[in-house]
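Translate sequence into structure tokens.
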Amino acid sequence: MNREAAPVDRATDSRPRTELDEARGEIERLSSLLVRQQTFDRALLDGVEVGIVTTDEQGRIRFANRCARDILHRHGSLEGEQVTELFGLSKGPATLLSKRSSRRFKHAMNVGDHEVEVDLAVNRADEAAAQDFGFFFIFHDRTREQELELERRRLERLAAMGTMVSGFAHEVRNPMASLRSIAESLNDELKEANLVLPHVGRMLGVIDRVERLVRTSLRFGRPSPPHAASHRPWTILSAAVSAMLPRTLALGGELNVEVEPDLPDVFVDDGQIVQVLVILLSNAFDATGRPPGVLLRADLARTNLDGRARKSEPPLASAVRFAVRDDGPGIEPGIVERIFDPFFTTKAAGTGLGLSIAQQLATENAARIEVRSSPGGPTTFSVLVPIAAPEEPLLTPRP
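Result follows.
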């Protein structure tokens, strides 16, 4: 009669350990160390803010870190794919390097529906690593760097322009006040003499317009520092809708408002963000001429405010988006690039400072304004504002 052998409990086994047992234990220990080291290496490479892709000698991908997948907009594993197809290269890595060990060059490739320019370095693995790796591709996105550089230069121009405009507006304000006083006194004297001259009324109208421009210029040149605090997104939307109510009623319509449920609090100066939304809503009303053609919406933005948006799963939600969408005629591509410049306007009676002030206020609140538009299509201005950090739970004293 056959009997199954009982499992041996190594903890209670009193037999002396043989060399084979010691070898097995050493192999298990080394295997565990190897797994831990590989896990650490992958976590370390995933935290690097440059793209890293490794391949075998035939150019088949062995590993791609998180930044590489983000830049390439690839969510899943890239293992086994050909690196030439991934980067859109006309030559394989061995041909690219020829007899060299490394090469660096600028490379443009199509990612989704747009082109991305990267600095790409191709390196051949040394002999010690050649058995597991053939080539290393290290790259970073130059497109975002160029955008940040353009943004930096534009902000420098805005700062210089703000200083100049503020000084000019301050000098103009006092003479305009004197001119208004003279015009109003002249108007009163004419009324006492039962005389009516339309030129005086026109003069006062021009003075009103110049004074509005002066006030707007002072706000542009010397914005108040933000007083950020936690606020519910729907309260900011409500304040913006209330501020636009007189014009909404005058146009004889109703503004469309949508709010995604359970939005987190935002950490901003609510008054300044309301001012930004009022500027965007006013422009949307100008574009459509009817409130029903405008949508004001708040939802969770799947992006990072520092511009390094992660495309991997799950998406990072670090901002709440306030979007103003209108079904107006759209904006020409050449004009979109200039709409935030001071004093640029396509309106007959516009000052050209509204969007400049809006962007300045957004920047002061660590927010960002994005615009999407096309001729004949809808236009959407989005304000991405930072969410408030969750409150730390109070520690309960131990009994």
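Note: Residues 1-5, 307-316, 392-399 have pLDDT under 50 and may be disordered.
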